[in-house]
Amino acid sequence: MNELERAMERENMERENPDAAIELRGVFRQDARGRRLLDGVTLTILRGAFTTLAGPSGAGKTTLLRLINRLDEADGGSISVLGRALDQWDVGALRQRVALVAQEPSLLGMTVRENLILPFRLRGGLPPQMQERMEAAMEEAELEPEILNQHSAVLSVGQKQRAALARALIGEPEVLLLDEPTAGQDPRTAERMMKRLHRLTLEKGLTVLMVSHRLEHLRQNGGRLAVLIGGRLHGEGDAAEMLARPPSLEAGEFLESGSG
Amino acid sequence: MAERVITLGWVEVALLLVMMVAVVALSGWLRLGLGRSFALGAARSVVQLTTVGFVIGWVFRQQSGFIVLGGLTMMCLVAGYTAARRSGERIAGLTGVLTGVVALVSIVAVTYLALAVLRLREWDPRYLIPLGGMLIGNAMNSATLAVERLGAELRGHAVDVETLLMLGASPRRAAEDARKTAIRAAVSPTLNTMMTVGIVTLPGMMTGQLLGGSAPIQAAMYQLLILFGIAFCALTAAVMAVYAVAPRFFTPAWQLKRELVAPKK
User: How far apart are the C-alpha atoms of A67 and A71, rounded to whole Å?
Assistant: First the structure.
C-alpha cells in the first residue's frame, strides 16, 4: 500500500457514515494489570437496527457497552455516537440519549415508581403525562403494573431487570445498550421482551445493541449480529447470513454451541 | 471554708505512678499481655505532658504573637497530615486539602471566640493556644471521620452511584447520599457529647478547671464555649472536607474512579 492509498483509506475511515448510530475504530481497552479486554475493535452499529453482540464470557462484550456509554475510557482508538466523537459530548446528555441497562439489575433502594421517575428528577422536573409514560414504558418492558408501588428490594432478579429496562425506555433514548437483559427471565417472558424490543426499533427507530449469549431470538426476529471473541471482532452482518456462513472458525464454533 | 488550690509537685507525680505500677502488676498477674503497653503508655504520658507543660509555660512567658501564630500554624499542618493519613484514602493532594480545611475552619472559630466572645486585646497565648489546639484537634477528627466514611460509602454503594451516573446524573448528584451520610457520621460523636454532657460525664476540661480551683459556674460557661466551638468546627470541617474530596472520586468525564472504589485489601 503506498502513501496515497493509505491517506485515502484514512480519509474514508474518518468520513461519517450517516447510517451509523455508533462507530468504533480500532478500540483498545486493557484492565489494571495490562490484560487486553478489547483488542482493536472496529465496528459500526446501524441506526434503527437491532444488533446482537454475542460472544463467550470474557470476550469483552460488557466492556464494549461501558465504553460506548463512557462509563470507562478507551485506552486507544476512537468511538463516535450519533455522529459525534465521545469527547465532544456533554456526558450527561450522552447518557440520556444513549441508555445503558447493566446486567446486574441496578435499581436504587426505593419503589419501582420512584425508580422510573428518577431519570426525570435528575433532569430537573417531571414531564406532563407522567402516568401515561410510566404505563407505556412498563408495557414495553413487559413489567406487571401491580409492582409499581413495590420496593425494589422485594422484586425478583427478572423483575429488577425489566424495571431497569423500563427506566431506560421511559427517557426515550435514541440508542439502547442492553447487557444480558433476559438472563434472569423465564423463556416465555424473554421471548416477549425480545419481540417488543424488535418492534420498538421498527416503529420508533430505536437503535438497540444487546449483549447476549442466548441466540434463540435471532431465528424469530432476525436483526444484525456481531461476534466478539477474546476482545476481537469476528464479523458483523445480517444475523441469518452470519448463522448460515460464520465469518471465522471460532465464530462458527461459538454460534453453533450458542444457538442450538 | 478556705479557698485553697493544691499544687502538684514531683513527689505527687511519683505517688501517681504507684497507680500505674498497680495496673502493670495486675495485667501481668492475669497475663493480659497489657503490662508492657501500660508501662510504655505511662512513660510516654509523663514525658509528653511535662514537655508540653514546659513548652507552653515558655510560650506563655513570651507573650509573642509570632510564637502563638507559629504554634497554631504548626498544629494545623500536623492535623492536616494526620487526618489525610488516618482517613486511609489514597487520593492525590488529600493532605493539602485537609490542611486547608482544618486551617480555614479553626481560623474562623478562633477569631470569633477571641475577638467577639473573650474580647482579647492582644495575642494572649494563655487563651489562644489551648483554644486553638482544642478546635484544630476536633476539626481534624471530624475531617478524618468524614473522608473515611465518604470512601466507605462510595465503595459500598458503587453500583448505586454508577447507576445514577448511567442515568445522566452528575458526580455531584451521584455522590449526594454518600456525602450526607459521611457528614452525619463525622459529627455524631460531637452531638452525642452535647446531649449527655454533665449528665453522664464531666468533660476533661471542666474537670481540670474544677481541680485547678475555678468557680463551677465559670467552668461550666467555659465548657460551653469549647463545646459550641467544637460543634461549629466539627460540622464545617466535615462539610468542607466532604465537598472538597468527593469530586476526586470521579473523572472529569463523570466516571467513578474504579481504583479508588475497589474493595480494600
Answer: 6
Using CA atoms, how far apart are residues A258 and A215, in angstroms rounded to an integer?
Answer: 6
B89 and B217: one domain? Answer: yes
Clarify whether residues B38 and B150 are in a common domain: no
What is the DSSP track for B166-183? HTT--HHHHTHHHHHHHH
What is d(CA A253, CA A26) in angstroms, rounded to the nearest whole number? 25
- Rounded CA separation B143/B155 (Å): 18
CB A101 within 8 A of CB A164: yes
- B52 and B75 in a common domain: no
Among B62, B79, B100, which residue terminates a domain?
A: B62
* Torsion, Cα of A212, A213, A219, A220 (10° steps): -40
Contacts of A96 in chain B (CB under 8 A): 167-168
Does A71 contact B162 at a Cβ distance shorter than 8 Å? Answer: yes
Range of the domain at B100: 64-261
Q: Supply the pLDDT for residue B197.
A: 84
Tell whether B124 is within 8 A of chain A (Cβ): no
Instruction: Give SS3 for A209.
Output: strand
Same domain, B58 and B68: no
Are B55 and B93 part of one and the same domain? no
Closest Cα in chain A to B163: A106
Cα B180 to Cα B186: distance, rounded to the nearest angstrom: 10
Is the CB of A122 less than 8 angstroms away from the CB of B255?
A: no
Please check whether residues B44 and B80 belong to one and the same domain: no
CA pair distance A7, A25, nearest whole angstrom: 16
Chain A positions touching B254 (Cβ under 8 A) are 70, 91-92, 95
- Structural domains in chain A plus CATH codes: 3-259 (3.40.50.300)
**How many domains does chain B fold into?**
2
A13 has pLDDT over 60 = no
Residue finishing a domain among B46, B62, B78: B62
pLDDT for position A16: 61
Distance CA A136, CA A133 (A): 5
CA distances from B192 to A61, A145, B208, B239 (A): 50, 46, 21, 18
Q: Looking at this predicted complex, what is its ipTM?
A: 0.88
Same domain for B76 and B111, yes or no, is: yes
Q: How many helices (H) and strands (E) does chain A have?
A: 10, 10
Do B31 and B101 reside in the same domain of the chain? no
Distance CA B52, CA B48 (A): 6
Q: How far apart are CA B128 and CA B167, in angstroms?
A: 51
Which residues 188-247 in chain A show a CB within 8 A of chain B? none
- Across the range B25-46, mean pLDDT stands at 92
Distance from CA of B248 to the nearest CA of A (A): 16
Percent of chain B with pLDDT over 70: 98
